Structure formats: structure tokens, C-alpha cells
Amino acid sequence: MLSFSLKSLTLGVGLAVAASLGAAPHAFAETEITFYHYQSGGNYDAFRAILDDFEAQNEDIKVKDIFAQSQQITAEVQAALAAGRPVDVATVIGKNIVYFLNNTDAVDLVEASKGDTEWLDGYLPNFLDLGRVGDAVYAIPHAYGTPMLYYNRDIFAEAGLDPETPPATWAEFLAAGKTITEKTGKPGGAHLHASMGDYGTMVMVTNAGATYLNADGTEAEFDSPEGIAALQNWQDMAKNGMMPIATDSEWSGAFMGGQMGMYITSSAGLRAAVDASEGKFALGVANYPLFKDAPRRVNNSGAALMLYSKDAEKQAAAMALLRFISQKEIANRWSRESGYMPVVQDPLSDPAMQEYVTSFPYVKAVIEQMSQTVPTNVWPAKGTLEAQTVIRAMLDELWAAKRPASEIVPEAVAKVNAALAVNR
Amino acid sequence: MSLHQPQKQVVAGAVPAGAVSGQPSARRQRRDLAPWLYLAPTVLLLAVFTYWPLLQTAYLSLVDWNLNPGQSADFVGLNNYGRVAGSTLFQAAFLNTLIYIGASIPLKVLLPIPVAVFLWSVGQKGHFYRAILFLPTLISFVVVGIAFLWILNPIFGYAKVIFAELGLRFPNLLADPDTAIWVIIGISTWKVLGFNVLIYLAGLASINKELIEAMRMDGAGDITIFRRLIWPLLTPTLTFVAISTVIFTMQQVFTPIDLMTEGGPSNSTTNLFYMIYQYSFVTFDVGGGAAGTMMLFGFLMIMAFVQFRVLDRRAHYQQ
């Protein structure tokens, strides 16, 4: 009797547990997606708040964000993909997008949209070009920047320059820098080089109308007259004494500390510049200087988002997130709170954005440059390090000013092309 | 052997069970297995974290593959090696590696010896100086790199300001290809000197001071005592310091290179270690990075072998 009762009890409890286990997935069905990013500090708070809002609207989806430093994000994502760890949405640095397209199994966002691609139309078409391959789109803009001219109005006044009319052309930039150095003894200005000189060189020659790399990224073409003239400007900055030879962080530190007249760097640093200048000096922000009469063409910096979910459920959840992020009010909110460039078309049609521009006028120049931004050039996998090393050495030689750009640049381009030959 | 010795003493005189039947006893079998069991954790860790990655790296250096599970790895033979070895970056990195190693011998291996002998000779009074010398070892290389960047900053650095006060112009050391590498070497020497002094002090502590007293009574001077007694007895320590310094020099200079120069100007500060990092994690050229790693492995093997041949034969392990 007792034995029978115990058996019944055990069976009953077992069945109850089994039933509850069987029922659990239905009661608490939840899809978790993984989002690799490099946002930290205040930017992370803004980023996470958007993800939280998404989760609030989609209770069955959880977004797990995984942080890596911006310099490490590409390696972290690559390692996760290679190890088979879950990656659903990944932040990929612009210049690495082609590498990721060639070496990873990224998902075509057009195909994943299953016919409903309207959400992609909200983005500025030139911003989507970076991840476009034919009709496919593999990356959407997320944390973009554009190079701006930051200047110290107080130093301008001290040097007898008009703080209301910052340099609009390269000739004016060089003249203003020289005047500042001569009149105040402070460095006149500098231009970020970033990523072994790659980004700085790219922006300078592209803005002058030259082609930095061909479309495949397998051949450098900036030894044209425009390219050489643009890089001669960089040599002249070192030669006329306005630009001490230093690293980006040293230039940035000097400008933020009120010790340098002008600094050309990404709009992503706008918030930091405003904070650093507070109580120290009056900050000015202007558009990237024009090269003679060439239209302004500046390459974007920053990162885009790529989709990697293979599992249908996770892919649907990740797509829901990307659609959410792409909405004009969310994309603009992200831009306002992070300081990154707006990425959707006509951002000023959003009243919140209009209010933002009124209260934070520095961003006006950034918005003006949106339509003049072209995709950052991308490198192939092989020979890139050798090629970029050549470009960095070219800058060192330009700044040493022992030979003119007309001799240094063609030699460097030939070496870059020799290094990239393996890809052709 | 020493592990077996006590066991033999314990069973002396007894007749092993297996001896009667001519079969090894269970106890003997367990005894034979014991050393392997003791070694197993280390062997396992070495196999998983050292030898397997080494074999995998050797494999990656021979294929064209960027770790993508969905892609096939194409065998390319020695192409990756040829591509890396033929680049100007590798040539600069290799030359700089020799400079870093060449400079590390007098600065990091030999310079600490007189410092350690001095501290040893002053006894208790040397503790304060020992602490001062060891302090840089405790500071992170990142902190050291940033501190020196501030000191050497060409725009508002402390060195520039102090020189300007004296009416002098401080040279932009990190922007000059002829001086930048010496800044890196100087910083890494400053950082490592105290550690190597400490190792030499440990070596010196094992020297019987009565031998010195005996030599003094025989009329030997300081130089004779150093040459005839201290130097020979310090050679085992010197061998260790020399080999570890040469091997670790490349890792030690990695952080200052990355923080302060990124290998520039004009590749004047890069080394093989930094070049491999750039191949693998800056441009994600896995084949190039793996080929560079294998070449560095071979180079370090040769260096270690040469040092063992040269130094170990001259080392005196007995007083």
C-alpha cells in the first residue's frame, strides 16, 4: 500500500515537473539577440536606452549588448564569428566593411527584408553606398562622422584674425595657421591623420578631386596633380611652422587645452570639444576647407551595422531591431544624444532636430556636410598593412620637408600599388 | 628519481608481491604512473595553450584563410612567408628587432650587474635604493607610456617647457626616425632595470661572503674579487637574465611602440612582434600574421640556442 502510494506520488510529481518544463518555453518564449558595439560612457547610456525602448515595445526580444574598444571591435567580431559564438548585429568600422563582406557570412539586408525595404530608403543614399554591392545592402550607417574644422576664436582674435570668418579654403587655412603661429607663438593648426595616416590622406586627396583608391581598393591613384597638390598643402603646414609634427592625440590635446588655433578632425569629437572648451576658450566649428574651386567631398569616418543572424527567429528579431533603429525619430535621437552625424535623409524635418540645432548650433555645419560626404575607401585583405605603412612613411617624409610632394607622392603610390598587386 | 627513492627505502627487505610471480605488482604500476599523473596538468595546459596554438599557427601560415568557418582554406605553400619577408615593413621590423636586442644586452643585462653589486655591498642601507629602482617595474607600461608622452609632447610637454625656460629648444624626439627608437629603448630599460637588479641580487645572495673575506686576506682588491669570484658565480643568473631579457624585450617594447609611435616615424620603431600584431589585428591578414609569427618563433629559437651555447657553457654552477 505504502509502496503504491510512493510510486503514485513520484509519478505524479514527475508528470507535474515534466508538464511545467514543457509549458515553460511557451509561457516565457524569448529571443535573445547579440549586438556587438563600441559605445562607452554617455554614448553607451544613449545606446542602451534605445535598446531598452526597443525591448519595451518587443517584450519577447532581449538585446544583449557586448562592448569592445573601437580599436578592437573588428577583431572581437571576427573572433566571435570564427569561434561560432552568437553574433546577430555587429558594429563594423567603415574601412573594414569590404573585408567583412569578403571574409564573413554577412546577411544581405535587402534579402532579409523579405520585400519590405522601405526602411532602408530613410537613410541618405550616399551613406548606404559603403555597404552596397549591386542590389544588395550589407551595412547600414550608425556611428558616422565627417571631418570638420574646429577653431579657437580667442586665438583667432589674439592673432588679429576675424573669429566670425573662419578659413573656407585650404589657401585661407594655411595663411591663418601661419599668422597664428607668427603672432601668438602657438601652433596654427593640424589635420588628423588617423589609422596610420590612411584616413587623413584619403580625406585630403578626395576633397581635392583626386581618387585615393580605385573602386576595388586594389590600386592607389592619388598621384594625380590634384592629389599631389593636396598633399603639398600638408607639407606646407609643417614647413611654415604652423603644425608641429605630433600624433593625433597630441594635436587633439593641444587644441582641447586651448593651445592650438585650428584642428581638423571628425565631427564625432564635437561633444568632447564643446565640453573641453567650456570656461577655457570660445569654440568655433566650420566646414572642411575647400580645395580651390573643387566641390567639397569628404569621406565618412566611423562605423556601420551588419547583420549576421542565421537562425530565422533571431534574424527576424535582429531585423526588427534594425528597422526600429532606422526610424527617423530614433536615428535622430541617437545622433543628438551621441554627437554622431545624422544618418537619415532631411533630419531637420524632425521638430526635435530643429530644436537641437537651435540649442546646439555647432551641429549645423555637420548637417550641411551630410550631402557632401562620400564613402570611406576600403582596402583589400592582402598587402594592406604594407600599403598603409608606406602611406604613413610618406607622411613622415612629407612633414620632414626634405623633398617636395611631387617627388614623394608618386614614389609612395608606386610602392602602395606594388604591395597591393597580390590582389589584382 | 627523487620521487622513487623514499619508496625504495620503505620497502627494503620486503619481497615485492609481483617478484614471486615475475609480474610487476599493482603498487609498482601505480608508482610508475604517478610521475605522469603529477605531470599531466602541466602537460595538458602546455598542449592546449602552447603546442596546439603553435601547430595551428604553422598551419595558418601555409593557407589562405581568414578564419571564416564558411570559407575553405586554400593551401598556398610558402606564399605568405615570401610576401611578408619581401615587404619593406618586415625588413625594417627585423632590423629594429636586432637593434632592440643589441641594445638590451648592455642596458638591461649588463648595466644592472654593477648596480646590483653596489646594492649588495652596502647591505641593509641598499634597501631604500632597491625599492626606488624596483618601483618602475610595478608601474604599468601603459601608464609609463602616457607619462612619457606628456613629458615629450612637442606642443606642451614638460621637457619642452623646461628647456624653453632655459632658453633652449627641446628636440621632437618621437618625430625623428633617428631618435624615436632610442626613446623606446630608454623607457623599456628604465622599466626593466630594477627587476633585473633584483634577480642579480638574488644571485649575489647565494655567494658565500666568507670567500670574499678570504680573498681580501690574501690581498685581493675589489676588481679582482669581482673578476675572479663574483662574476663567475653570477654567470648562471646572467644566463637566465640574458635569455629572458632577449626573449621578452620584444614584448616589453610592444606597449610603448603602440602607444607612442605606432611603429613610426617611417617604420623606425616597429619590431617583429608589433608587425605581427598589425598583420593579424589591424589589417586582419591572418596568413601574413601567422607567417610572421613562425618566423619570429624561429628567430627566437635560434637566439635562445646561441645564448645557451655561449653562456651556459661558461656558467659556474658550483661555488
Automatic annotation (TrEMBL), chain A:
Signal sequence coordinates: 1-29
Gene Ontology terms: cellular component: periplasmic space
Keywords: Signal, Transport
UniProt KW Transport keyword: yes
Broad class of where this protein is predominantly found: periplasm
Subcellular location field: Periplasm
Assembly, per entry: The complex is composed of two ATP-binding proteins (UgpC), two transmembrane proteins (UgpA and UgpE) and a solute-binding protein (UgpB).
Primary role: Part of the ABC transporter complex UgpBAEC involved in sn-glycerol-3-phosphate (G3P) import. Binds G3P.
Family: Belongs to the bacterial solute-binding protein 1 family.
Name of the protein in question: sn-glycerol-3-phosphate-binding periplasmic protein UgpB
Provenance organism: Pseudosulfitobacter pseudonitzschiae
From TrEMBL, chain B:
Membrane topology, from the record: Multi-pass membrane protein
Gene3D superfamilies the UniProt entry points to: MetI-like (1.10.3720.10)
Alphabetic keyword roster: Cell membrane, Membrane, Transmembrane, Transmembrane helix, Transport
Alphabetized InterPro entries for the sequence: ABC_transporter_permease, MetI-like, MetI-like_sf
Primary location: membrane
Residues of the signal peptide: none
Ranges for domain ABC transmembrane type-1: 94-307
SUPFAM superfamilies tied to this protein: MalF N-terminal region-like, MetI-like
Transmembrane segments: 36-55, 98-120, 132-159, 179-208, 229-254, 274-306
Keyword Transmembrane: yes
Pfam families listed in its UniProt record: BPD_transp_1 (PF00528)
UniProt-listed PANTHER family: ABC TRANSPORTER PERMEASE PROTEIN, INNER MEMBRANE ABC TRANSPORTER PERMEASE PROTEIN YCJO
Family: Belongs to the binding-protein-dependent transport system permease family.
Name of this protein: ABC transmembrane type-1 domain-containing protein
